[in-house]
Design brief:
Keywords: Membrane, Transmembrane, Transmembrane helix. The chain is mainly alpha-helical and 229 residues long. The protein has helices at 4-28, 45-49, 57-70, 74-85, 90-112, 114-123, 126-159, 174-187, 193-201, 205-219. It is built from 10 helices and no strands. It is elongated and about 60 Å long.
């Protein structure tokens, strides 16, 4: 039988790690200047370049380190999500866990590169920016594609009605929150560029914080399962 205290500790650490990821996003990228990010999946250099206009350097250096040291806590949350998905399909929940664990260091590494990205974009050195684009953009797109695949897996198992998640939690699943944030970004007026930027740049970590919190609250109420792989 699952140990409620173990679930709580893992859940609190995972949610804290995701919220620190949100803080890292804000420090690394957020600016009241208009960016071109239409969704959290908009990760081309052109999409984010506007955020670095007049952005204090210390902010994205600090965000670099916060992301590096706290986003790894996501793995604890993914382990709990796996427990909640297992009743729907042991095979697909293991696929989810494998992909999530595989993507975590990719995301940590990308976050750790944002200080360099900021410096290079602000240098306005066209040759250097083009060189960075060649390796950084495929890296960024591989992360958001993987995030989308993992999110669709979660959504599918929630909607099956066989996991521990009630079907309504599909609305606050990662892909659901990315969808709603994209709608908000599209309809909010330009005088709310700061809010639009917040929704875009925190659009991967904030949904995970919600997911880990909801998962923890669901699992602590159940005692008919054991924490296992």
């Amino acid at each position: 039988m699952a140990n409620r205290m173990t679930i709580l500790v893992l859940g609190v650490l995972a949610t804290f790690g995701a919220l620190m990821g949100v803080l890292a996003d804000i420090l690394s990228v957020w600016s009241s200047h208009a960016g071109q990010m239409a969704t959290a999946f908009s990760v081309s250099l052109e999409d984010i370049a506007g955020f670095y206009v007049d952005k204090p350097r210390w902010t994205y250096v600090a965000g670099n380190y916060i992301g590096l040291y706290f986003i790894p806590l996501h793995v604890l949350g993914f382990f709990l999500v796996f427990q909640a998905l297992k009743p729907a399909s042991l095979f697909w929940s293991r696929v989810f866990l494998a992909l999530a664990l595989y993507l975590t260091p990719i995301g940590v590494g990308m976050h750790g590169s944002l200080a360099f990205v900021g410096d290079i974009l602000r240098s306005e050195d066209a040759e250097l920016i083009q060189g960075m684009r060649d390796y950084w953009q495929p890296w960024a797109y591989s992360l958001v594609i993987g995030y989308a695949v993992v999110s669709v897996l979660i959504l599918g198992m929630i909607l099956s009605g066989k996991s521990f998640y009630p079907r309504w939690t599909a609305l606050v699943s990662p892909i659901g929150l990315v969808f709603f944030s994209a709608i908000a970004i599209a309809i909010l007026p330009e005088n709310l560029n700061g809010l639009k930027a917040f929704l875009a740049i925190t659009g991967l970590n904030l949904p995970l914080a919600v997911l880990f919190l909801v998962t923890t609250l669901i699992l602590v109420k159940r005692d008919e399962f054991s924490l296992s792989l």
